[in-house]
Structures are given as structure tokens and as C-alpha cells.
Amino acid sequence: MSEIKLVDLLTLEQLKPGLYKGQSWDLGFRALFGGQVLGQALAAAKLTVENDRVAHSFHSYFLLPGDANQPVEFDVENVRDGKSFSTRRVKAIQNSKVIFYMTGSFQKPEIGLTHQDAKMPDVPPPDSLDSDLNYFERIKAELPHRLQKAMDYHKPVDTRTVQAIDPMQPKVQEPKRYIWMKSQEVLGANISLNQEMLAYASDYHFLATCLQPHGVSIRDQNLRIATIDHSMWFHHPFNFDEWLLYSVESPFTGSARGLVKGQFFNTAGKLVASTMQEGLIRLVD
Predict the structure, then answer these.
(1) Is 227 a catalytic residue?
(2) Domain ranges, ordered by start, for the chain
(3) Which residue has the higher pLDDT, 284 or 39?
């Protein structure tokens, strides 16, 4: 297999003005990985705005499970172009059905009042931790066959969980998770590409944090878990080919739903992005 690059996944084919197609990766999950649609939809929206405007936020809803064996089309609507901000609405389509909606906002960079009240958690540095992928390689024989075949597609993002969660023997623990992550590819100073890759990676280990207080494994055959909505805010430019800490916590589960929120810090402790997600969490017989 040739080297798998995330930048290739986020490079879209233009079918006509405002309509783009992206290829899909099968990561071994029950449905198309949500992070793929997030990153590609953001990339599609960016292709329709002026070069001097960068994303500062997006808000999205997952409507139907995606098929990882089929490409996705992205239909971009130009909602508004103002003097400072541009707004786009993106539909992700498979088999003539809308599986996902995103509204994204882009801004011409400017200087304003600045403060940060968020504090980076005190955790071990990434170099002292083992890669999550190495752990899953060690237990590969115990994983579902579909996930075994898809291991290579997880390599473009290096994730290192501070307190590794054993999916075979989950324990009851507080709903917090800290993950170091970075791209394995050299990205340079392209702000939009870094944002699109972080949007992709922001869906890793996110909703599963809701399961920790309940001691439920992500591999539980009785578990039905799926993202409902996902929002993200970009605060400062960053390089995703350098380490970022993803600080995740779940303040609530109930009514078959779970809520998680996350913050991305660079190694200097600067808050560069924030996330929120709500998802379906249902146990069935």
C-alpha cells in the first residue's frame, strides 16, 4: 500500500462551481468517520471564499450515517460576503441524500482585545507516552477484522492518550481525557490546511469520553453511539505538525445523549481552538 496522506483526503475535486467531491477512507468503524466529513466540508467551504479570509468557527449536524466505501459530494451555498466576514452553508451528499450540514464562518484577520482564562492541564509530555497506534497494534488480534484491515488509515495522525483507556476492560473513571496529537505530515504555514486537519482529528476519542463514568466500552455490542452535532472555534493560528494537547471532558449524559467539550493547547499553553459535540449514546438488548 502506498503512503496514506491526510492532505490527499482533504484535497477535493471540483465538479462545477460550488460543488466538490472528496474520496472516503474506511477507518474500520460502523460508518464513515465523522472527522472526515468535518475536514472535507470545511475545505469545500474555504474553496469558495477570498484567500485572505480564514475560518473562525463552524457548526454542523450529522443527519445520516455515511458510507465509507463511497465518495462524498459537497454542495456549498454562498450565504453572505461582508466586509469582514463570509458565511457558507455546506451539504454533504451520498446516494442523493443529505447526510450532513455545516455552517461555517470566515473572517479577514484583524487585531482586537485579547485574553485567555483557560489553563492548560499539567500532563506528561508527548515524548514520554506511547502512541495509541502502538497499543492497538499489540492487541490487533483481539480487534474486529474490519478494524485490523484499516489500521494504516489511522497512521496520518499521531495520538497519545495520557491515561490510556483499555477498550477490553473499561473501568469507571471521571469523564476527562487528555490526548496529545499531531499530523505525521509536514504542513507548513497554510492556516486553512492546518484547520481542516484539526477538524478531522477533533473527532478522535471525543464522544467516547462520555462512557468513562459508566464503565462502558466503545466496543460493547449493545452500545449505539453516533455524533449528532459538532461545533468548533479557531482562536489562533497553529501548526498541526507540532504537538497539540486535546483536553476533553463530558459535563453531562442523559436522555440517550452525551455532551463533550474540548480545548486544544499548543506546547506553550496557548488556547488555539475549542470544540463541542453532542451525540447519541444508547444501550440496547
Answers:
(1) yes
(2) 6-109+128-283
(3) 39
d(CA 96, CA 252): 35
3-state secondary structure 182-197: EECCCCCCCHHHHHHH
User: In the prediction, which pLDDT does 1 show?
Assistant: 47
Rounded distance between C-alpha atoms, residue 3 and residue 124, angstroms: 30
Whether the full predicted model's pTM is greater than 0.70, yes or no, is: yes
Q: Which three cell numbers stand for residue 199?
A: 477538524
Q: Among 36, 212, 227, 275, which one carries the catalytic annotation?
A: 227
277 is catalytic: yes
- DSSP string of 204-221? TTSGGGGGGGGT--TT-T
Instruction: Report residue 2's pLDDT band, with 50, 70 and 90 as the boundaries.
Output: low
Superfamily for 6-109+128-283? Acyl-CoA thioesterase, double hotdog domain (2.40.160.210)
Catalytic residue among 203, 209, 263, 275: 203
Torsion-angle region of 46 (φ positive above 0: left; ψ -120 to 50: alpha; else: beta): alpha
More confident residue, 79 or 28: 79
Report d(CA 254, CA 131) in Å as an integer.
32
- Torsion angle in degrees (nearest 10) through CA of 253, 65, 54, 244: 50
Active-site choice (94, 159, 161, 277): 277
| Residue 107 cell numbers, joined | 473572517
